[in-house]
Amino acid sequence: ERQAIVAELASVLARLHVLRPDAIGLGAFGARGNYYTRQIGTWTRQYVDSRTGQVAAMEELMGWLPAHVPSIAADAAAPTGIVHGDFRLENCIFDAHEPRIIAVLDWELATLGHPYADVAYCSLMYRLPAPFGFSERALPDGVPPEADFLAMYARRAAPAVPAPPAADWPFFVAFALFRLAAIAQGVYKRALQGNASSASAAHYGQVVPQLAGVAWRLVQPQPPAAAVAQQQEQVQVQQQLFPVSARAVELRRRLEAFMAEHVYPAEPVFAQQLQASPWQEPAVMATLKATAQRLGLWNMFLPDRALGAGLTNLEYCALAEITGRSPHIAPEATNCAAPDTGNMEVLYKYGTPAQKQRWLTPLLAGEIRSAFAMTEPDVASSDASQIQCSITRDGDVYRINGRKWWTSGAHHPRCKLLIVMGKTDAANPNAHRQQSMILVPFDAPGVQLVRPLSVFGSAAAPAASVRACVSARGWSSAHSIVTAAPCSSRVSLRRTNSSSPVCRLPNPRVPQLATTACLDTGPPLACCRKINERESSIRWHHALNAAAALIKAAGRCRLQARQHAACIKHHMMDRVCLPDRRC
């Protein structure tokens, strides 16, 4: 699959470059002619304006590059196409089921120019050390060498884009590195001024001389022995940019061996077992977990040496990159899979001794799984202040009412714990201090697992981190993590005859059902009955009519527009349709 992914990169890039700008209405998308001369001038000026010190290799490149533009790219007949400017694997979205690119992102550097500027930039993955790329001497299994990548592109782009002579290729790569170094220098200068958006921007100052050094050596004649020295220098550069302990280096070596000897060979077995029993954990996973534990590759995310690997975030980052090469298997096989990692960190830092004994210990042992319930269907839940789920203190218990979806891990057969976000202080004038989180046993009365949710049209099985819709009406949990007042450890629920329903339905023909919970005398009552297929189509009909009315009313009456919006929201919810509601 890796070879197919690289081939798809080459194919999509070639398809972009063979487009004729004039034929698709983009003839004025950028200036024509002298592309490299103009680009070298632009990035030279940016580098000079943000320069914070003298980098010898950059000074050399600013003089060498404009004097050595290949004739194939400088001639008036040189091909001119749409140049993306930042075409790389990280900016491509692939189909969920096959190595096919369905979208290309980040077009802010796009213009008209010479196609091989994109090709060289994409090929930097073969020139840079991890985590930016990988040396061609240590390619992961299945990744074709740089020469094969270039041949894939040339075949697909011919004859519209003629391949440059091999002797000119170093220029294109050196230009790509020079431009990247100029960009990095700008980021570093903004970091010094306090204007950088990234917390790691201050490290870019060390990157600039390394990128420029690779580019300058590339265009200079080197003796054969220099290639070995350059490889050693790349390793030293990586260690300088990302210093790690000897223990982290050993764990990385051990993890790469584990991936090669156990994880990659298990991928077809895992897929076969998952297809045979989609809602059960594949049996091969237990074997991989036992092997990972035996090798000491377990709970590597946790910085506590007694419970985990005792690594820093930086050291664990390199290991997470390796497990990410087999994302459906390796993270869980090493007990480093989300959402358990985040949930375990919360328990480790904030849990009481009793909570740690009940939940953290079996999670660290890999005996159970957990889920995090935050997102809700009726609000923009990425803004936590919008959360509507209520967590109300009632004596020595909490009453929780809400509906969650995109709850990762909830459908896993061994999921035993939910960490639920809700509002414990809705009246607080500070919208960011109204929320809290609470531990909820998955088997608590009132917790209902409604259905799995598809992601981009794919309904994944539990072992593939399925997301689910979870409904909670009137269930209680006393396992609070960060609520203001602690309480005892019992879970209780009862029916009541309260007249204050969870959801208010204006249709008097729909029964108003109580859902307040206090004591354990039975399961909660549903707020509204499940709509059938006919009602579903009616609901969509009313919602669409309301949407049309909203568009008309928005320009005339703000109150009327709000009424239409409320009607749309009600019809879109999984509740009975309201035929007497005026839209």
Distance between the termini: 52 Å
The largest pleated sheet is described as: 4 strands, mixed
Q: Compute the average pLDDT.
A: 78
How does the overall form come out from the CA principal axes?
globular
> What gyration radius follows from the Cα positions, in whole Å?
29 Å
Number of helices: 17
What percentage of the residues does DSSP assign to strands (E)?
5-15%
Helix content: 40-55%
Structural class: alpha+beta
Strand order of the largest sheet: 5-8-9-12
Poorly predicted runs: 462-466, 474-535, 573-583
Give me the count of strands. Answer: 12
Secondary-structure element series: HHHHEEEEHHHHHHHHHHHEEEEEEEEHH
Outline:
The protein has 583 residues and is an alpha+beta fold. 42% of the residues lie in helices and 12% in strands. The strands form four sheets. Strands 5-8-9-12 form a four-stranded mixed β-sheet, covered by helices on one side. The protein has a four-stranded antiparallel β-sheet with strand order 6-7-11-10, with no helix packed on it.
Q: Key features?
A:
single chain, 583 residues, alpha+beta, 4-stranded mixed sheet, 4-stranded antiparallel sheet, 12 strands, globular, disordered C terminus
Topology:
Layout: H1 2-17, H2 35-50, H3 56-67, H4 71-74, E1 81-83, E2 92-94, E3 101-104, E4 111-113, H5 116-122, H6 146-157, H7 169-193, H8 204-218, H9 224-241, H10 246-276, H11 283-294, H12 313-323, H13 330-333, H14 340-350, H15 353-364, E5 369-373, E6 390-394, E7 397-408, E8 415-423, E9 435-441, E10 447-453, E11 467-476, E12 479-480, H16 533-553, H17 558-572
Parallel strand pairs: 5-8
Antiparallel strand pairs: 1-4, 2-3, 6-7, 7-11, 8-9, 9-12, 10-11
Helix pairs in contact: 1-6, 2-7, 3-8, 5-7, 7-8, 10-11, 10-12, 14-15, 16-17
